[in-house]
Amino acid sequence: MRTSLRAAIQCTTRRAACRLGVPLLAVICATPAAASTLTQNVSWTINRTGTTAKYRVVAYGDSIYAGYNGSVLNAAKYAAPTVDAEYLAAKWNASIESVRRAKSGAVASDVYSNKIVAEKSYMQAASTRVVTFEMCGNDGLQARSAFKSQTGTCNYAGMDAAVNSCKTYVAAAMDFINANAYAGVKLKQISNLHYPGYNADNTQSSCKDASTGATVNMRDRFLPKIATMNYWMCEYARQKGFNCADNFAQYMGADYDSNGDGIIDSDALRYVAGESEASYVTRITTTLKSTIRDANAKFVSTSSSYDYIQSDDTHPTYSGGTVSAGIFGGTTGSGAARYTSFTNGKSPIWNQYGHERMGWAISTSNPAAP
Description:
Blueprint: H1 3-12, E1 38-39, E2 42-47, E3 54-61, H2 63-66, E4 74-76, H3 80-92, E5 95-104, H4 108-117, H5 121-124, E6 128-133, H6 137-148, H7 157-180, E7 187-191, E8 204-208, E9 215-217, H8 218-240, E10 243-245, H9 247-252, H10 265-268, H11 277-287, E11 298-299, E12 305-306, E13 322-326, E14 329-336, H12 354-363
Parallel strand pairs: 2-14, 3-5, 3-6, 6-7, 7-10
Antiparallel strand pairs: 1-5, 2-5, 4-13, 8-9, 11-12, 13-14
Helix pairs in contact: 3-12, 4-7, 6-7, 7-8, 8-11
């Protein structure tokens, strides 16, 4: 039995001590094993009536694209890539196969090596028109978990290592996709990171800074690191012919202008093509920090909010039920779209759930024709 499978089964019987597949991090189980992962692959086709055309969206990633919902047996049917497939089906008047090759709990190097590289055949199919991926979340959460357990003098090296690993494998993933994806692919895309636990991290560390001798605010330490990761995801995308779906801005900023600067918060927080790392990080961590809000209460207006994060304070909420995806295999199936047309390019629930919002963000770059 593989270590990951054994750990998955152990986790089901040790819920109090272990939760498997956290999106930005594989939580350490209460076993001798190290971080655990769970493969959650799904292929779901959105059937479009009146057409024989069929195209494919291939999505590689960790538990975010997997649609992880706390179970080792199933996942959200309409995770973000499949939500995008609905938008594509309407836009192209075609059936769209959403292929999700995901591994909950996987760090960036694992997603790169064991999903993108090892499973390149999925993006090489002649029907493929969109290739999208996400990674780095677990690198960040592992570093965060390790830092929270520190006592004595704070050591920030783990957070820096997570950032460097993210940069290395994001760039490598884009280069590999550019070299190996089917020549007819019309869109290559990366989704960057939201900040789960934004409010929970607003507390002091147990360790003390070597220079000041005082504890540090953990959110103030983590925010610049996730901002740096997100910058390089979007900047590498700009350099290498990818689009960047800015989930940080979509999740963490309100859909109205809360600070009176004349820009809707979720727009103001977005990466700006060509800006410097220093400019972006300063904008996120200082200039616009007061507009960042925990995605458990995503304000879509001044008086209305939705919960974008599940009860684990990490994974996106979803609508549309579940499919088998876990230790006993994944689902290959099909069904009619929930929505067959989109007013102003948005479904009726585009801003009500985390996965719906991410799927819409991916869809905004969809080409007009396959």
